[in-house]
Structure formats: C-alpha cells, structure tokens
Design brief:
280 residues
Length: 280
C-alpha cells in the first residue's frame, strides 16, 4: 500500500501547485515545459543509477504517443476551465476514474468484490458532492463545444491512467525508467516546440514553479506503476482519485483558508467511506 500512498501524496502536490499557478495567473504551457524538463531529468538519473535498464523500440513509440496524449489532455483541461469553469473541469478530471476501471474489468478480467463495487459507487458519489460544493462557480447552461472539452478531459486522463496498466502488463519492469524518460522527454519537446511556434515569451518565475512541479509529477507516475504491480487497477484508481480529492481539500483549507460548505463536508465523509470499502 505504500506506493499507492506515495502516488496520492505526489498527485496531491501536483494539484496544489497547479492551483498556486492558477492563483498567480502563470502561463500554463511555460509551467508544463519546466515540469516536463525536470521530470525527464529525474527519469534520466534513474536510468543511470538502476543496475539493470532495458530499452526497446515498442516502449519508445508507446512513450512518444503517450507523451502527446499527456500534453493534449492538459490542453483540454485548460480549455475546459476557460469554457465551463474550474468546478466542472475538475469533476471531469476526477470522473476519468471510470475509464481505467471499466477497461481493467473488460480487458484484464479484474473482478471486483461487492465491497469494492460499493466503494466505487461511493467514489462517484464523492465526486458528485465535490461538484455540488463548487456549484457556485457554474456559468449556466453549457454549449456543445464546452461539453466536448469536458468529455475530452475525462477520456484523455482516463486513457493516460490506463496506459500505465497496459505498459505494466506488456513490457518488462526493467524498461520502466526508459518509458518514463520517453514520456517526459517528448512531452518537454512538444511543449517547447509549441512555445517556439507561438513565439511566446518565457516567464522564468512560472518556469521555476514548473520545475518544482516536475518532481512530484515524475514520482507520481513512478509510484503508480509500482502500485499497479501490487494491487488491482479497480482498487488503485478509485483510491488515488479519492485520496487526491480529500488531501487537496485539506491543503486548500490550510493554505488558502478555503472553507467547505455542506456538500464539501458530505464529499469528505463519503470519500472516507469509499477508502474504507476499497481497502477492505
């Protein structure tokens, strides 16, 4: 369970740093570029210190494609925030948990117990309460394009998560450091190319914050791969999402003094129930 806990802690750090960047109106692409550069650097160091690391073309091509999806998912999230508001965009990113869970059941035949099914139901209930707690940010009825962005966030992040499980079943563990280097290295190249094409000025303060972001971002993927080797995906993904919601809400309370309304409190309660059921 330790890798799962570390995944949650790293992912929560990512959420809080993104919130800090949003609060200071930092450029999202510059933040991403700094993040991916540092994450790629740490992945390269892992390759140097690991006693056995293997390389292969299938892992290279898979990592290149996944890196593009990583960047595209973040673009979709930024668009969703602008079009539908932070509340709906955040809920879509958390609802992405249904994608890897359903695909794990259909493709890898992971059979949930009744308690785990109940825990997954409470996971969705928690996300629903989480959305209602932020409902005051809603901008009214959504247009078709706004629904498209929200759906793109849900599917994109869900596929990103499930791709980690695919790699775990498909490629040997000795290729993990190379896989992570490929993802973050090419994600850096994609974001840097975008900045060059758009001729955007580099904001060094945002770049430095992105460099800090790169540390938990890289290790969240590293620990997620380790957790998937030890636990079924139908446990890992819901627990990760619930843990991020609860710890992010706690962090926002301590750092920005964000108080929770009634629905936020209900989300915390149902989240704890979901963790207990999934843990059993």
């Amino acid at each position: 369970m330790l890798p799962l806990l570390l995944t949650i802690l790293c992912s929560t750090s990512i959420a809080l740093i993104l919130k800090q960047n949003d609060a200071r109106k930092g450029d999202a692409i510059t933040l991403l570029m700094g993040n991916y550069l540092v994450a790629a650097g740490i992945s390269f160091i892992l390759i140097l210190i690991k006693s056995e690391v293997n390389f292969s073309l299938p892992t290279l091509f898979f990592g290149m494609a996944l890196a593009l999806l990583f960047v595209a998912s973040f673009f979709a999230f930024v668009k969703a925030v602008g079009a539908a508001g932070t509340a709906l965009a955040t809920v879509s990113s958390r609802l992405s948990v249904v994608v890897p869970v359903i695909l794990s059941v259909l493709i890898y035949r992971e059979t949930p117990t009744n308690l785990q099914l109940a825990g997954f139901a409470f996971t969705l209930l928690t996300i629903g309460f989480f959305y209602r707690s932020l409902r005051n940010l809603s901008r009214g009825p959504l247009r078709l394009t706004e629904y498209f962005y929200l759906l793109a966030v849900l599917i994109g992040i869900g596929i990103n998560d499930f791709a980690m499980k695919i790699f775990k079943h498909w490629r040997p563990a000795t290729e993990e450091p190379f896989f992570l280097l490929t993802i973050f290295g090419f994600a850096f190249l994609y974001t840097a190319s975008y900045l060059l094409i758009k001729q955007k000025r580099l904001d060094f303060s945002t770049f430095r914050l992105g460099a800090i972001l790169g540390v938990p971002n890289m290790f969240s993927s590293f620990f997620l791969l380790t957790a998937l080797a030890q636990l079924p995906a139908i446990i890992v993904y819901p627990l990760t999402n619930i843990g991020i919601i609860l710890l992010t809400a706690l962090g926002a309370l301590l750092i920005w003094q964000e108080r929770m309304n009634r629905f936020g409190q209900l989300a915390m309660i149902s989240g704890v129930v979901a963790i207990i059921l999934l843990g059993l």
